[in-house]
Amino acid sequence: MKAFYSILFLMVLIVSCNGQTTKMNTQPYTNALVDESSPYLLQHAHNPVDWYPWNEQTLKKAQEEGKLLIISIGYSACHWCHVMEHESFEDQEVARLMNERFINIKVDREERPDIDQVYMNAVQLMQQRGGWPLNCIALPDGKPVWGGTYFPKGQWMEQINQVANFYEERPQDMIEYAEKLAAGIQQSELVAYNNSDAIFSWQDLDNMLEPWSKQFDYKEGGANRSPKFPIPKNYTFLMRYAHLKKDQLISDYVQLTLEKMAFGGIYDQVGGGFARYSTDELWKIPHFEKMLYDNAQLVSLYSEAYSCFGEDMYKEVVEQTLAFIERELSHENGAFYSALDADSEGVEGKFYVWKKEELKSLLDDDYSLFAKYYNINSKGFWEYGNYILLKDQTDEAFCEKEKIDLGTLKVKVKSWQRQLLSEREERIRPALDDKSLTSWNALMCKAYTDAYLALGRKGYLNKALKNAAFIIDKQWRSDNSLWHSYKDGKSSINAFLEDYAFTIEAFIRLYQATFDEQWLSQAQVLTDYCKTHFYDSQSGMFYFTSDEDAPLVARKMEINDNVIPASSSVMANNLFVLGQLLNDSDYLNMAKVQLNNIKNDMPSYGSGYSNWANLMLKQVAPFYEIAIVGTDALEKSMDLQENYQPNSLILGSDKESDLPLLKNKMIAGQTTIYICQNKSCQLPTTDIKQAFELMP
After folding, report:
1. If residue 145 lies in a helix (H) or strand (E), which one and from where to where?
2. Pairing between strand 51-53 and 102-108?
3. Residues 6+ apart with CB under 8 A from 680
4. What is the C-alpha separation between 145 and 181, in angstroms, rounded?
5. Phi first, then psi: what are they for 474, rounded to 5°?
6. Full strand arrangement of the beta sheet holding 339-340
7. What is the DSSP string of 609-642?
8. pLDDT score of 353 more than 60
C-alpha cells in the first residue's frame, strides 16, 4: 500500500498551467453526449473522446468491461474547462488513450451537484484543494481512486496511464484504497445529533467572528487574500450583526466591501452585473464569467444594504444589475438562464475590455473626463493594450476633484454607459448557458422581490411573480416534488434540497411582499415534502438528495455555506420563519435542533457558517413579528420597510385571516399594526412612528 499511496501523492500534486496547446484535428466526431440538453455536455459532443453521460447504462458498461471510469466535471462558463478541452479532449492522441483504457463520463456540475459533491470531496481529501475542471478516476462501481483539476496534455496522459497500469497490476490494492476513501467521503460533512441543551448567545457569535475577522481586508474589503469571491451571505450576516450589536467597525467594513466591489472590474461598469470573482486583491481583474446565482444574491445584498445605509450607489447597483438580468439572462416565459461564458472568440474577457484608441474614437471630447473616471491609466491597464473599466472614488469625491457638478456627471455617466453598451453589442458575444435551474431561478425570484421591497418598484415584483409562476407551471410535479432543470420546453432531473430550500425561501418572501397566503401554502407543501424525502431523523438534519434518487458513493449533507449558502442552512432558516408564521412548533424545534447540531463548529470557519449565524441572530437578538391588518395593510407594510429592522417578520392581510398572528385582529374601518414577540402582542397602533418605537 505504501507504493500505491506514493503514486497517488505524485499524481495529485498541484500542477502548473503552462501546458502547450496541441494542434487540433478538425475532423468531426460525435459521441453519446449529442443527445443531452446541457450546454456544457453539448460542448463536448463532438470531441474524439468517447464521452458518455452519467447514467445507469454507462455505469453498467464500465462494470461489464471491467474498465476504470474517468469522470470529468465542469460547467459551460468555466474558462479552464475550455482550455483542457482544447488541449486534451479535442486531441486524437489523448482521445485514443482515454477510449482504449477507460469509460469516459462528462458531468455538468450545475445539472448534477450531487455527483460534483462526491467527487469534489474526494479530490479535496486527496490533495486538500479542488476546482473545475474536476477530473477523477474511479473504479467501475464509481468509487474514486485518483483526482485533480486542470492538467496539461502531457501530464494528463502520463498520470491516467499510471493509474490504469496500477489497476491492471495491483487491483486489490486499488480496491482497498477506494474503500477507505469512500468511507472518508461518507463521513465528511455528516452531522451528528447534539444532545446538549440548545442554548444560544451573543458570545457564540462573537466566538465565531473573532478568528474570522482576522481574515478581513480593512483596506480593499473582502478577504485579505486573492482570489476574492463576493460571498453575499457573509456580508448579509455581518451587516445584520453590526446593526443589532451596534458595531461600527464591522458596519464600516461591510460598507467598504460593498463600495470596493461596485467600483472594481468585477462589476460590469458598462452593462451591470458581477463576474464570478476577482483574481487579485483589488477587485480589479475578474474571472469574466457571469453567473445567475452570484447576481441574484448580490441584488438581494445591495437591496438590503440600501435599506440599511440609504446609499444611492447601492440602489444604482441593484437597478443596473437587474437591467443586465432582463437584457441577457431572461426568457420570455419568466425563467432565467444560468450563465454567460468568460470567453468570446476563444479569449477570456474579450467582450468586456477596451483599448484606449477605440475609447477615444467613441467618446471624442468626453474621453479625457471618462479616462479619469474609469481609470484608463496604469491602474486600469490589464494586458495586450486592454483596459478594464473601474472606479476608485465616489462620484461626490470625483466631482470635487474635477470641479464638475454632480448632476452633470451623472448624466454623462449614463450617456457613456449607453454609448459603450451599444458598441459592445456589436461584438461577438460570450456563449450563453440557456438551461434554467430551479434553485438559481428561486434565488433570482427572491432577488426581484427584495429589490421591490427596498426600492418600491412594482415592475420588480411582477418579474418575481412571473418567475414563481414558471416554477409552479413547469417545475412542480403532481406529487409535490420539483424538477431541477429546464431547457427547450423540457423539465428534467429530480430536484435536490437546494431547489426546495431556495424555492421555499422565495415563496416566503413573496408572501411578505403581497400578503397572498397561497405562497405560504406552497412553501408549507414543499417543506413537508422535504421532511418526508430528505430528512434524517437520527441527526435531525436534511440530506442533499431525495430518498428516491439512485444511490451514489455517499449520500451527502450540504452544511457549509459557500458562494451559495448551504441548502441545509437555508432550510433551517425557512423552518424558523415558517414556524413563526404558521405557529408550528415542530418547524421551530427542527430549526433549533439543526442550529444546535452545528453550533460547536461555527468558530472554526466563520465564512462557512454565515447563514447559520443569520439564524442564530434570530435566537439571540430580540425578534419581532409585525402583524398588519386592515384595508391599507400592504401600504403600511411598505412604509415599515423604510426602517431597517433585520430581526423581524412582517405579515398581514386586508381581510380576516386564519394565520395565528392575524386571527381576530381585524378592527373595522382602520389598519392596525401589532408588534409581537414570541406570539405575545403589544397593544395595536395605527401610527407607523409609534410602531417603530415599539421595536427598540
Report:
1. strand 144-148
2. parallel
3. none
4. 7
5. -110, -30
6. 290-291, 339-340, 432-433
7. GHHHHHHHHHHHS--EEEEEESTTHHHHHHHHHT
8. yes
Give the separation between CA 696 and CA 693, rounded to whole angstroms.
6
All 3 cell numbers of residue 576?
424558523
pLDDT in the model for residue 187 = 86
Asked whether residue 406 carries a pLDDT value surpassing 50, the answer given is: yes
Residue 398 is inside which H or E element, if any?
A: helix 395-402
- Count, residues in the chain: 696
CB 421, CB 270: distance < 8 Å? yes
Average pLDDT value for the chain: 93
C-alpha cell at 513: 411582499
- Between CA 8 and CA 126 the distance in angstroms is 8
Rounded to whole angstroms, how far apart are CA atoms 204 and 620? 9
Judged by phi (left if over 0) then psi (alpha if -120 to 50, else beta), residue 630 lies in left
Asked if 46 and 29 touch (Cβ cutoff 8 Å), the reply is yes
Q: Mapping DSSP to helix (H, G, I), strand (E, B) and coil, where does residue 503 land?
A: helix
Q: Say which amino acid occupies 555.
A: R
CB neighbours of residue 86 within 10 Å: 16
pLDDT tens for residues 596-615? 999 999 999 999 999 999 99
If we measure between CA atoms, which residue out of 58, 26, 25 comes closest to residue 142?
58
DSSP for residue 330: B
Q: Are 82 and 343 in contact (CB under 8 A)?
A: yes
Work out whether the CA dihedral 323, 328, 333, 339 comes out positive or negative.
negative
- Bridge partner residues of 74 (DSSP): 108
CB of 610 closer than 8 Å to CB of 237: yes
pLDDT, one tens digit per residue, over 562-579 is: 999 999 999 999 999 999
